[in-house]
Every structure is written in structure tokens, then in C-alpha cells.
Amino acid sequence: MHKRLVLYLILSIIAFVSNVYGAESEGMPQLNPEFWVSQIFWLILTFGFLFVILSKFILPKISNNLELRKSQILENIETAEKQKIESENKIKEYETLINNSKNEARNYFNEARKKIIQDIDKKREKIEEEINLEIQYAEKEIIELKKSSPEKINKIATETSAQLIKQLIGEEINNSSISAIVEDLSKKNKGKYYGN
Amino acid sequence: MATNPMHQFNVYRIGPEIKIDQIDISFTNASLFMVISSLIILIIFNLGSVKKNIIPDKIQLLAELSYSFISKMISDTAGSKGKPYFGFIFSLFMFVLFCNMLGMLPYAFTVTSHIIVTFILAAFIFIGVTVIGFIKHGLGYLKLFVPSGVPIVLLPLIVVIEVISYLSRPISLSVRLFANMMAGHTMMKVFGGFVISLGLVGGWLPLGFSVALTGLEILVAFLQAYVFAILTCIYLNDALNLHH
Fold first, then answer.
1. What value does the mean pLDDT of chain B take?
2. Average pLDDT in the B162-189 region?
3. Residue A40 or residue A24, greater confidence
4. Residues of A in contact with B34 (CB under 8 A)
5. CB contact under 8 A, A55 and B90
6. Which residues of A fall within a CB distance of 8 Å from B202?
7. Closest-CA residue to B166 (of B115, B116, B233, B235)
8. CA B200 to CA A11: how far, in whole Å?
9. Residue A69: how many other CB atoms lie within 10 Å
10. Domain residues of chain B, as ranges?
């Protein structure tokens, strides 16, 4: 089996090599000048055509496209930067506006508070004055009352004690003696009833 | 002869024979793939340039990324003076890239695997760069062959070496691309042939190689287009900014 395989291999290689050898008698077709002129002619024709069409029509278009893209991208970047700056400015404007309005609001608030406080103070002063006046009045009245009250009390005490005695004993006693006793008592107890 | 790895590079006539003054300029499979590559490039970049969205869609992004990629490559190597040549470098890169990539499709023809095509491109670049150099600097452009800071004794030798290296530019530029493409495609064909001839038993290993090589070839296809374009930029830089 193995021997037959090896033999087959060797035979086929020999056959192949002999084929190649047979070809060598033909030589390289490249060195056969039969079609050289034709090849030169067609080379110049096709390559010339290719060169002219490419460099006159197609390559300028491609370079245009590339330039266009470059310029467009640059433009876009420029506009983007411009818009960025604009928006930053707008943000600054907005912030200043907000700050101004905040300050104004604070000012208004402060002014209003001052006004209100002033108003309140005025009114309070007024009311306090009024109250003071009333208090003074009242104090005067009280003082007057205080001054007049012992006499009245004495009088009332004298009258009531006279009536009491009249009811109890059934006899009228001289008013002057009763009032003398009352005055005496009231003088004694003055400190007790009017502490102030 | 299906296994002949060079068969894929054959050029054959498509349609009638076209002759102008005994010169054969018939439409061939090579011409077909040049036309297809150019048309695909034009269609893709036209679609990518029509829309003007601020946020690009896929095809627009592809076109714009390619634009900035080449633009950056030129400004990195040749500076701002290289800007007028942007169209040419862009076309060159895209043409070589699409020819390489289309060659990766099965049964496709690789335009850049032919020395005559790459040599014409390289020769055009060489002549163009030399003309630009002489226009910009006059005879001062010859200073390119005289590096500064070299001992006078060594100068004759250095100048000869510089001239030879300058003159070999178109050859190195064209052979680099052509050899890379041809070698890669030949390798893929050889491994593909191994898959067939070794059959079900031994074909799996070369199949794996084939898959890996396909990935590598796609990388090489991009890389060679990039190298071709960036070397053009470097040559242009020599002509525009005389540094020596």
C-alpha cells in the first residue's frame, strides 16, 4: 500500500515537472514582442483617459467635498462657540437681574418694615400718652376721693351709728357726741384701713 | 498544457486585427484588463465624489480615504511642491493597484506582469522627473550626481555610481513590479498544478500553500502599487527639492 502511494506521488511529480519543462521551451510570453506596441498603445490610451478624467473631473470634486466638510465643521464649531458665549452672557444677565430684583425686594421689605415700625411706634406713643393722661386723671380722682373719703365715711358712720343706736336703744343721741367718737376711732384706725 | 505556469501571461488578440501603417495595435486581453481597471476606478471614484454628505457613506469614505492617503504620501515625501502632480500619482497608484488586484481573480490577466507595461510607466516617470528637474533647476540639476561632503579623490567614482543609479531607476522600478507580479502568479499556478496532479491524496498540502499564497499575493499587489507610487514620489522629490 505504502509503496504504491509513494510511487504514485513520485510519478505525478515527475509528470508535473516534465510539463513545466515542456513549458520552458515556450519561454516567457512577456519577452515576445508581438503585442508590445499594442500594449503600449492601449496603456497610453487607457491610462491617459483615466488620468484626464480623474484629475479634471473626479479629484477636484473629492477635494471640494473634503474642503467643504472641513469648512462646514469649522463653521459649526464657530457657531457653537458663539452660541455658548451668548448663552453664558445671557446667564450672567439673568443672574444680575435676579440679584437686582432680590436686592429691590429686600429694600422694599426693609422700607415697609421701617414704615410699619414707625407707624406702630407713633400709634403706641399716642396711645401711651392717652393712657398716661387717663392714668393721671384717675390718679387725681383717686387722690380727691382719698381726700374726701374719710369725711364722707365719718359722716356715713355717724349717721349709721346714730340710726343703729336709735334702733337698739330707742333713744336719740346727740349727733355731735357720736361724730366725736367716730372721728376719734377713725383717727386711731387710719393706718389700718388706708394702707397706702 | 493547462499546467503550464507561464500560460497565464500569454497575450492574445480579441476581435479583429487593427493595424495602422503596419503597426499592430489590436485589442488584446491585456487591453481588455487595462480598460476594465480604468473603468472600475472611474466608476468607484465617480460614485464616491457625487455625494456631498457631511457624514460620508461607504463608497464616499473609500474615495475620500484614498484621496487623503495619496495626498499624505505626496506631502510626506515630496512636500508641498509635489501638489501639482497629485493627479498623476493618484492615477498611477490606482491603475497599478487595480491591475494587480484584478489579476488576482481566477482566469484574469495581470496587466502589470508584463515588463513592457511597467517599463513604459517607469520610463514615462523617469523622463518626466528628469524634465521637471531640469526645468526647475536648470543645469543645477546635475548637482544631484555630486553629493556634498565627499572627498575630492572619491568624487569621480561617486559621480559615476550616482549616474548609473539614476539611469537604472526606470529599470529597477519596472522590473520590481513586473517580477513581483509574475513570480507570485507563477508560484500560485505551480501550486495549483500540484493540487491537480497530486490529486485527492497529496493535494491538500499544496492547496493550503495556495490559499496562503493568495493572501500573500493580495498583500503584494497592494504593496507593489504603494512602492511604485512612493518611489515615484521620492524621484519627484529629488527633482523638486534638490537636497544634495
1. 89
2. 92
3. A40
4. 42-43, 46-47
5. yes
6. 9, 12
7. B235
8. 15
9. 16
10. 7-240
